[in-house]
Specification:
alpha+beta; single chain; about 375 residues; 11 helices; 13-stranded mixed sheet; about 35% helix; 13 strands
Length: about 375
Amino acid sequence: MVEARSAPPAQGARVARYDPKYLEPLARFYRLVWDPNATPEAIAAARADEARHNPAEPGAEIPTYLFLRGGEVLGHLTTIPVQVLAAGRARPGFWLIGFMVHPEHRNGPIGFLLMKEAVAELPLVLSLTVQTGPQRIFQHMKFAHLGVVPNRIRPLRSARMLARLDLDALGAGATGARRRILGLSRAPGVAAAAGTALDLALRASSALRSPRGRHEIAEEVPSRDEIDALWTSAREALAPAAQRDAAYLVRRYEVGAGSPYRWITARERGRLRGLLTLRAPRAEGDARLAGIRVATIADLVYDPREPAVAAALLRGAERSALALSADALLCSSGRPDLLDLLARRGYLAAPGNLHFFLRDASGELPGASQLSDWWLSRGDMNSDGTF
């Protein structure tokens, strides 16, 4: 959508921080490139709500940058404020989101100029992106590219998947019996039998290889006090990570009519030991994957030193995903401990698409970090809506 060019803007054009006086042109821009029903009133109400829940600076406007020319908005970049926990300290950080450029002005300098303004003001910025345009800008502006977050996918209804999809693309990590089943599935008329065999093999392997514990699994939203207690107990082992307390999680993964989210909990003698948020698959399936229905693990909170808790959460997620008629379950993480557990439960390697970028102008983060250090999920930066 945007390119890393630094040519000067046309005369009279400029980048400005959002101000209510831009509501009318911003609504017109949104209607053109994003939401055909956008109104100034709805935008103002949404921004006021975001300011009330701003974890980086409570009550302050969410940083948003607009490229303006002649009273019209031609470009847009906004943020999701978070508290980033690292080395025992929380620091304000900002996910960069909402790169949008007027269709007639793409492939020019607008994206670069928006980003330049944002990083001049914000000390710690992060991004998970699949778009090549922003990636070029980040690299040009000396962001640290920590890598591509690995994807893992667990077939749940393998017969339907085999009938629609070449599982070699999703089964790059399959070996032994699983690889033979995938190969046999290409023979005419055997997809159903091969799918049943694959499901049985995955269940048997998961049961044998996953750590076990005495955990009660439920589909429920815990109390805020329980969520905060869990986060407090687990955060040092999860860091570096964006804060996942009740104030963030309950708002981010709101449940109710029309919500795509389900919460899975693991308890031990009534005490909350872990939670998982699951995003339901699209009813129509994913067009890029021949219409298969993929549920997504949006977020996970547990102490990674307790793999049996994570195994219980995954069992609960797989069960709930099946109840939602999902054909497969997707989980994305760079943490070796979680990736190892996913492999034990039969999750197959799939091509990664989320690039993680970081720019710490404050110098407050402790030393250099790598992707495997960070506790990331597809829910970060609202990245759970696509595969």
